[in-house]
Amino acid sequence: MAKKRSSFVCQSCGHSAARWFGRCSGCGEWNTCVEERPQEVDKRREHIAVTAPRSELQPITEVDDQDHERLQVGIGEFDRVLGGGIMPGSVVLVGGDPGIGKSTILLQMVGQLAASNFRIAYISAEESAAQIRLRAGRLGALSEDLQVMAETNLNAILDQLKAADPVAIVIDSIQTIYMPELESAPGSVTQVRECAARLVYLAKESGIPVFLVGHVTKEGTVAGPRVLEHLVDTVLYLEGERHHHFRILRAAKNRFGSTNEIGIFEMRDQGLIEVANPSEILLAERAEGVSGSAIVCSMEGTRPLLIEIQALVSRSSFGYPQRVATGIDAKRLSIIIAVLEKRCGHDLSGEDIFVNVVGGMRLDEPSVDMGVGLAIVSSFRNRPIDAQTVAIGEVGLGGEIRPVNQIDRRVTEARSLGFERCLVARSNLKGWKRPEGMEVVGVGGLEAAEELAFGAG
After folding, report:
1. DSSP label at 224?
2. Is the peptide bond before 173 cis (omega within 30 degrees of 0)?
3. Domain coordinates of the chain in residue numbers?
4. Are 282 and 358 in contact (CB under 8 A)?
5. Distance CA 257, CA 251 (A)
6. What is the largest CA-CA distance in the chain?
């Protein structure tokens, strides 16, 4: 009998080689090589592939376009990110830093469903059933329809799930369960790929939605092979600082909805509480009359958010000044600083500049550029910006203010929170009706925006 040769697999990207390697040639990571032996063909998977129903080619106009009825969780922010609720048969991967609240939000979700008399299966490979019971009691998620199980063997889990016939399944976490017929350790590329494939098939065959908790690497991506994110239908990330009370749920991938929506939660003793009006909370502790503060409006999906940008400009004690950005792209900050020096005449070459987005938010939209520039100038000149002014606009390399989309919704949100003036691009003044009590001023460049922002301050 021929001897089976082992293969060496990178646990970060799944690259395979015949010999051991220190650095992966696929992703460049060090010390991620693990020896794995070839596996026998799984007779059960072979049987599944043969007996699975076959489909035939047909015109797309004859395909049934009837939308599946979504399962409403009852947590508005969670339903929003999923695209309106849980799609039957979908597989959702939830990632996030350790201790950020992944297990908490999923236990709250299944608690809501169980309270509506839906049978839910919560499988934990990291905690005992007693630990889950204690956490569920604190979160108010105790129900007879919520069935828990502490198990790491996937075959035993599948046997229990077939007998229970739940409405939804939670696996916490995918990196800790294993298949005994595979010789590799739990969390390896082979185990994660095969276990996820079995669970995906279960979801598609039965129509039961499956939620998988995934560990993340130090870079913030889901640990394990990249194929894991390709297998699932939706990838959610729970973001935020562990010592900060706000948590943001984002969809990095969603086959059944938009990836632009976010859900905002506040961590309390009772768990994660959804924030109905995040703009009001993000501006609650704003100090008026302080230089270096500007209010911007960012669109997160269909939701406008008013957020405070803080900047601190101080004389550098070293030959190379610092440029520190928290919550915005550091390269974008460098561009805005260059525009302020070249187009607006501010000498910032010897200044340390620190920019922070209040509330732990992460802003990638260019509509906040004007607010960032005004906050930097405000701190540099030590003059506060008018407290009733909101800045909305993208800054071009020529110093011009460029228009942004959905300006009417942004201005309406600012008016509802009591602001009286909006600085926008001149091109944004056409084609919509201004709300009463709101002064909308069009500006052509960042230098003109400075004169208006400080003229009333």
Report:
1. S
2. yes
3. 1-38, 69-276, 281-455
4. yes
5. 9
6. 87
Burial degree of 20 (CB within 10 A; 0-12, 13-18, 19+): exposed
254 alpha-carbon distance from chain centroid:
11
Q: How many CB atoms lie within 10 A of CB 241?
A: 11
C-alpha torsion 192→195→201→207, nearest 10:
-100
Q: Return the SS3 of 427.
A: helix
- Euclidean distance between CA atoms 228 and 197, whole angstroms: 9
CA proximity to 423, closest of 368, 384, 376: 368
The string over 72-86, giving b where at least 16 C-beta atoms fall within 10 Å of a residue's C-beta and e elsewhere, is bbebebbbbbbbebb
356, amino acid identity? N
CATH of domain 69-276: 3.40.50.300
Place of tokens 């550029």: 369
402 burial type by CB count under 10 A (0-12 exposed, 13-18 middle, 19+ buried): middle
CATH T-level assignment (fold) for domain 281-455: Ribosomal Protein S5; domain 2 (3.30.230)
**Residue 273 amino acid letter:** I
Residue linked to tokens 């595979």? 182
Task: With H, G, I as helix, E, B as strand and everything else as coil, classify residue 214.
Answer: strand
Rounded average pLDDT per 10-residue block, the chain, 457 residues: 68 81 85 73 43 72 77 92 93 90 94 94 93 94 94 94 94 92 82 91 94 76 69 91 78 90 88 87 82 94 91 91 94 96 94 92 92 97 93 96 95 92 95 91 94 72
